[in-house]
Amino acid sequence: MDVDTRLLRSFVAVAEEGSLTRAAERLFVSQPALTRQVRQLETLLGTVLFTRSRAGMALTEPGRALARLVPSLLADWDGILRETKSAASRAERVLRVGFLASAANESTPDIIAEFARRRPGWRVEMRQAAWSNPSAGLADGDVDAALLRLPFPGQGALRVAELLEEPRWVALPSGHPLAAREGLSFHELWDEPFVAAPPETGPWRDYWLAADERGGRPVRIGAVTDQPDDWLSAIANGYGVALAPESAARFYARPGVAYRPVSGVSPSRVAVAWAPVDDGNPVVRDFVDCCREAVAGPR
Prior knowledge:
The protein is an alpha/beta fold. It folds into three domains: 5-81, Arc Repressor Mutant, subunit A (Orthogonal Bundle), CATH 1.10.10; 93-165 and 269-296, Periplasmic binding protein-like II (D-Maltodextrin-Binding Protein, domain 2, 3-Layer(aba) Sandwich), CATH 3.40.190; 168-266, D-Maltodextrin-Binding Protein, domain 2 (3-Layer(aba) Sandwich), CATH 3.40.190. 38% of the residues lie in helices and 23% in strands. It has helices at residues 5-17, 20-27, 31-45, 61-92, 108-118, 203-208, 228-236, 248-251, 282-296; strands at residues 50-53, 56-59, 94-99, 123-128, 145-150, 159-166, 168-173, 184-185, 193-196, 220-224, 242-245, 257-263, 268-274. A five-stranded mixed sheet has the order 4-3-5-13-6. The chain has a four-stranded mixed sheet with strand order 8-12-7-11. A two-stranded antiparallel ribbon has the order 1-2. Helix 5 (108-118) links the parallel strand 3 and strand 4. The chain is flat and about 65 Å long. The termini are far apart.
């Protein structure tokens, strides 16, 4: 019998969280999709793995047996995949770097140039990720390092070095009455509809909605998007406003969208991240050092 590792990962998430809702947020999938995956695994194995109740999802005896064995199996498989992909990168002399939005802003070209100087014959392959993938492929082993916005789900399982901090601004339709202002207080936006990331991104979505910085006021969602172009279109078309890094005003300027400074909301932080298994990888370490030096500026 062949079992898709995706089903096993879903099983582990539900077993550890004890809740379909929390597991779905952790995996960045919808709850109905996760329910289907659990049932599919139960059908393949021919046994019930969970008892379901209002209190949550409790493991049955077969479920407990599977929960003891699967994490190590998945860890071994992840190690095999990561090593295979790393070997391919080394053979091709390519460093795969995931990123979100504007990566490390204006420092990005300097980082790549310095890496090329340190590693002649190597090249950096930049891979932009959707907002539904806040680790930009790093958690799945699809990239060797990533330039990310903190905080992101799964951050505790990775190595993270903070590079820079910048204020969060608001992006709003250029015809919005608040766009005529030079700056805004965040509380003035609490009643505005917001353009949000997909619900399955959980804490990532909440951070960019500043859900914990609204004094308990609920968030109004005007539109949901997963890509920068769709995000900009939703704002320009008047479906809502959105918090964004200050640098978005430079990297994502477009007609119909205005950016304004916002006080009363925490800043955005950019970091370089890599997997713990690459602590001893000299190529990854060189890239991390290039990131740190580029944002530090001339000495």
